[in-house]
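Tutorial sheet, problem 5. The three components below are modelled jointly, 949 residues in total.
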Amino acid sequence: MATVEQPDPLLNEDKTDGAGDGVRRRDFLDIAAVSFGAVGVGAVAFPLLNQMSPPADVLALASIEVDISKVERGQAIKTSWRKQPVFIRNLTEAEIAEANAVPLSALREPQTLAERTKEGKQNWLVTMGVCTHLGCVPLGAAEGENKGDYDGYFCPCHGSHYDTAGRIRKGPAPTNLVVPDFEFVSDTLIRIG
Amino acid sequence: MGQLLKFIGIRGFAFLIGLGFIGVLVIAFITDAVNYFKEPPAESAEHALHKANKDVDFSFEGPFGRYDQAQLQRGFAVFQNVCASCHGMQYVAFRNLEDLGYTPEQVKAFAANWPIEVPTINPDTGERATRPALPADRFPSPYDNEIAARAANNNAYPPDMSLIAKARPDGAAYIYSLLTGYQEPYQGYDEPAAELAERFPEAQPGDGLYHNPWFPNLNIAMPAPITADGQVEYPEGAPEATVEQMSADVAAFLMWAAEPKADTRKNAGLAVLIFLAFATTFAYLSYRQIWAEAKRKVVAKGPLDPEHMAEREEAKAEAAEAGRGVKG
Amino acid sequence: MSFAWAKPYEPKTQLGHWIDQRLPLPRMVHGAVGGGYPVPRNLNYAWNFGVLAGVFLMIQIVTGIVLAMWYNSGIATAFSSVEHVMRDVNSGWFLRYAHANGASFFFIVVYIHIFRGLFYGSYKAPRELVWMLGLVVYLLMMATAFMGYVLPWGQMSYWGAQVITGFFSAFPVVGEPLRVFLLGGFAPDQAALTRFFSLHYLLPFVIAAVVILKTWALHIPGSSNPTGVDVKTEKDTLPFHPFFTAKDGWFVLAFLMLYAAVLFFAPNALGHPDNYIEANPLATPAHIVPEWYFLPFYGILKAFTVDFILPAKLWGVIAMFGSILLLFLLPWLDRSPIRSGHYRPMFKVFFAILIVDVLLLGWAGGAEPTAPVVAVMQIATAYYFAHFLIILPLISKFEKPLPLPNSISSSVLHGEAEESAPYGLAKA
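Model answer (structure tokens):
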């Protein structure tokens, strides 16, 4: 009974099998089994994580159409796109002139009003209503709200001032209000997204 | 109680409880049996006359079956022209129709031209209003609520169709059977119709009901919806629009509506099973490998174990044959 | 942990040493499911179902956590939130079907595990507490599964909740107030749904904790084995790792194939069509049945049809609860000193009858309760109680057990190799 721990060398045939090659069959099988397991766990982790990305119904709402026929010169409306506010502003000639009068060198993020609007429709300023600083909704879209020092938008959270082209002029925000992808479907209808 | 338990012991106590339960069951069994033979329960009309689903072949049956897009499109046409006037489909969105092979433009047109509009609120007045549907909208219900639906349908409620194919056993076959199953009562059984009529007079349809032995209650409030060949216009090259064909097509469409991910699911399933088959094989071989050693440790008790000598001799002979000299 | 020859944990790296001195978690794992846990070498495949149950507990917890990210526990939104998962959420159909069928497979695995314990006498000394903790897990699983089935708020969800909470109203005086208390209303409604969701999320973690206690209790005497003979020497055992990790590993994968086949190709086969109809408190389904894993108990409940001293409903409810609770007494009911059913010729016969009996009860519990079906339920229920309360205590007195092997390793060597070593390996 002495050799439980020392197997009989005669019956121990495996050791000679394929020992000549670098990797023995035994190692190969263990490695294959374990790597299959690892790949399987990885493959299962994908749907478990991917389920967190936006579902199909949310993605389907990615574009909206807005009727702008009722927005008078000098007025603005707030609408909602992807659950975020969008400001659509019909600029007056004075406001356009004010925006164009600013030298680009005075801007934190140099952009002209023309670059931020569609050709021939320079009076329609469409921006996200989300301050680029920390995401508050700036004031100035509705009648009588504080438009800040530059007659555009003013974010009350940390005092960022935007001008009539929605560009950052003063305060902590790093960039201009974002202009979303949009196009004019007709003169009175725009599609955002 | 404690003293009693001590006296008779836990097993004696269990024995008594067991006898108690069995006694009550014996009484119940005898009472039921006496009642059964005294007044044998009459067979109900539903039990006697209800027919099992017809046998239909659908392309999506089985692990390798997939939806047939052309059939789903035809089924959608039937739904649109026949079912949709009374039945809603609240969990399916117009955008889902792209799965049937329609382009986004076609889907947009379907949504915009859908006869029922989507409820909304007038942005100026705040009043209730409706607007044309968009692809992102789900199919609007033809009725505001169940009460309105019942009021308009002789107090019967046309159920929502989005899950109907999963909400009935073997749903697609059931829908097909139901749609093609309107008939006069008592026809098509082993017994003669006159005899059945005498035994089950209650199977006659009441006022505003229609006989259909594939419906669990035998009589259904919905009049036969698909009644004539060619009722729905089928496109060029499609099979002839017979009642059976239209019924099968709409059944397939409703199966898709209930389980739109079935094709994805089966494809994923095949991949997973193939992967697992390989993984299992490797894991099994690896397990055999690891255990081979353990088994040897038990079997090989030592060179001098008499039980083992025969095997040793055999191994020695083999080794000699192979030209390997072995000491011991 | 349990035997003198258990290999102690030796950290291989400096980091391992450093951790071991501060938080000996690797040491604990090594002792629990690693090379430091000696396991009887002759375990057959019935012993794989404990680990498999742990795998399904994990599957249920993981899929459940992600489903809870989308599920909405309002009575007006619960059903549609489940449909939203099925239709719009990325891989949502997979997660929901994995969870729903995972529950069924969890029960399949646990039932095999329980019947393995019943046949091999795993409940006998010194493993009584292992058995009882297992029963606690089973009871918690039943509560969790029941509440989980209510969450989609389909017709069967609603009426199942109505019927099962109705059990409590069978008890005189306290019953009805207790039912109203549990539901937070007079019928299943918003209050009930929200609390069921809360508890459905909580209980699996309680189960996991009890499983840890159970594993701890198991590792004191070590695993039982098909001969029922105690481990005597090191020859009788093999370290859990790599031998049983390898054996469990391939078996888990093979079992997952079965699970995947149902999940991907017949995901609704084990469910009820009525649960794809939203709950309607004004219309009862023609035939209310619980999920399949409760059917034997449903059969016991319905077997009592006659008011005798107590109302029939109360008899049914007492018998149903009693049928599980009596299992807690099993270590003291079955006094045979022989653990394994292999060496108990009479027990073996009654055990086979018990299996058929429980399957019959399950079938009858799900069938339409016509007179013959009810009669089957009554006979089967009577046998169930007779088996545990009368037959088991008695046969140990009359039975002549077969001779036991001297030790596990001698059983592997002599004659019983077929039953006591893994399939295919024993023959050589």
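Marking note: The longest helix of chain A spans residues 25-50. Full credit if you identified this.
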